[in-house]
Amino acid sequence: MRRDVKSWAAATAGWSAVSAVAGLMWATGGPGFPFGGSDRAARMGAVLTGLDPAPGGAAVFVLGLGGMVVASLMPSRPRLRFVCWPAAAVLLLVVPDGRLLLAVGELLMWHGDRVEAAAVGQAWCTAGGVLWAGAALAAGRGKGRAADPGWARPITLVAAALPLVYAAPRALWAAGFPFGLDPAATAMVSTPGGRTRELVFATAAVSGGLLTLGLTQRWGTRLPAWVPLLRDRPVPGRLAVVPAAAVAVVLTGAGFTMWRALAAAAFTGPTGEAAFDLANWAAWAGNLIWLPWGTTLGLAAWAYHRRDGAKKSLHSATLRRTIDCVDRGYER
Known about the structure:
This protein is mainly alpha-helical. It folds into 2 domains: 2-81 and 113-139; 152-331, no CATH class. The chain is 70% helix and 0% strand. Helix 1 packs antiparallel against helix 3.
């Protein structure tokens, strides 16, 4: 456990150091400050917007230095994990907005030139949120927990089914059957480029759902016999956990933004382009799936990680017992 905490703490301290350097650069007039004000940022659900680079950069610098101190003390003071959770929550749920998931979509379409600089900054903050959460979990890790919690399988099945709900309307739009869209949105999805885009999104969602099933299936831990060259070989735990966790983090952040915007619209009323127009309900209703999808996928990945870690611990314990028996045999 101690080595695990040290690894997470070192990575978190490194992330904090780089963030402090970036904050100092912004405070002194450097380019790339990601929290500037713009109408587009507000439309995409941004919370931290309209900040001045000088005080904003100074705040990032101070927070980065504080993060370095907390992360460095984490291995010897595990109670500091209670400081990590608020930091992770802000970085994962407050900083990101819809531009981050939009950037993922642009990359799927091989349009990397359309990725906004703000989305790159949000990706960096999201990585920091993962590190802070990982450090907190490692510091609080104890013994006596079930390796495979009872909720793991049903949660994984839900995580595998939710992307199908997201993919269904997009598959129909790609096939030329638009519904639930206003005339402007219908025109967009009816073009060849629009149909291709919706087909890519639908295919990615369905593929993600199928891969999610592997978190509870045998082929998720050992490759099937029909896979050439690699048949029946064990699947590295990180190969399953890291992609699933990354997708879960992005979906959860974007979904939280959507639900936050929907709640704001319900209380304040629709305004301009940020409105949830009922005439265009299918354009945004499917995006409400992001939050439960990301949350359940994250829980499924966590359960898989616990199960994989328990197996490795069992194998290590068995190997140690075998070595002890052999040693005792030699002593006799």
